[in-house]
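Hi all, long-time lurker, first post. I run a small reading group and we've been trying to get comfortable going from sequence to structure in the token notation. Rather than ask abstract questions, I figured I'd post a concrete chain and ask someone more experienced to write out its structure so we can walk through it together at our next meeting. Sequence below, copied exactly:
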Amino acid sequence: MAQLALRGGSSVRTTPFTAWPIYDDREARALQTVLESRNWGGYPCPNDYAREFGKRFAEHHGAKYGIAVTNGTVSLELALQAAGIGAGDEVIVPAYTWEGTAAAVLFAGAAPVFVDVDPDTYCLDTTLIEAAITERTRAVIPVHLGFRFADMDAIMSIAAKHNLFVLEDCAHAHGSQWQGKGAGSIGHAGSFSFQTSKLMTAGEGGAVTTNDINLADQVIRLANCGRPPRRESVGEPALGHNYRMTEFQAAILLAQLERLSEQTELREQRTQELEEGLKQIEGISLLPRDPRITRQASYHYVFRFHPEEFGGIHRNAFVAALNAEGVHCDGRFYEAVYKSSLFEFAAEKFPSWAQSKREFDCPVAVRAGYEESVWLPHQIFLGSSEDVADVLTAIQKIKTNVAELVGYEDERIRIQGMSRAQRALLESKPPY
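-- Answer (accepted) --
Happy to help. Here is the structure in token form:
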């Protein structure tokens, strides 16, 4: 008789984990207040709630200025444009990240240069950066991925040496700190996302943080149809888009920010409990903790899967089996961006990329994306210790009964092997 749920056995977990997003009367009151005010939009820019949210969010991360915008890809693009980066320029990005990190570089008119990631963090490998720098390199985008930081000490040192603009992609890092400094306050600018799955959300939304008032002014100008934010603004005149955040979104995010610290502490407590259990399971290895991360945020908890200890099954089979046990997870959550079909077909339309003669070989990113990484979403860690125990029980159950998966292939495993972008296309509904 089969034991694994994927083979017809009973699931370890039959009740859902903590629902996300989390909300309470604070969001409801904020939305009602905005509704009754009839002041709903992003103009004037920043509007009242957007201004207040930008200020409080920046303060929470130790930055002087915060600008609320429409989403996290736009916030990357605006920061690059505000720094004067455009056609003919190159921007170094990690090879293992969401396609939007590289897409923002293209939208700004520049060309992304992919550098492999560190196998201990899945973040940008700082030992490889200088070899990728040319006379056209103007910026570097370190991505704080999943629950780890890029090595900001090394990156800022390299940037100072080569006069590079550093834009932290903090889409996974709300509330985290490196050496006591908040994510998004260490580089020249930071970019955050408030898309539905993120650690704070208004459904969509983004923010740029910076300590440079001129950069902040230029971001507002570019997000507000080219209008200068202040009479004394010194930025270059620009033809901007309407990338403003609505007052509804900003009001929700102010409420979300109030509970961020408490949720950050709870996630860290639960992920530590998970780590203690994972250490006992052969075939699972952890991404080492870096003591320079002085406040840990976990958008997803990521660990490495080693097939040789699981009967030689593919990572995708393990992921499918874990999902069947009631523990939602992803394998190919991200992939090596330069191999992504979503990136490739779109990138061909951008002159900077089309003219680039670079070829990339990033084996760590390839291994992480297609063979090794397993991603557990953060809402699993907003519940009880019993929730964590169920995750560990499910993993150990798969290990004990792995013979049931050897040679097993079906449509579910194929789908688990798809990237998020590919699954989105597969599952998308017609727009009309």
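A couple of things your group might point at:
The chain has a mean pLDDT of 93.
The chain has 16 helices and 15 strands.
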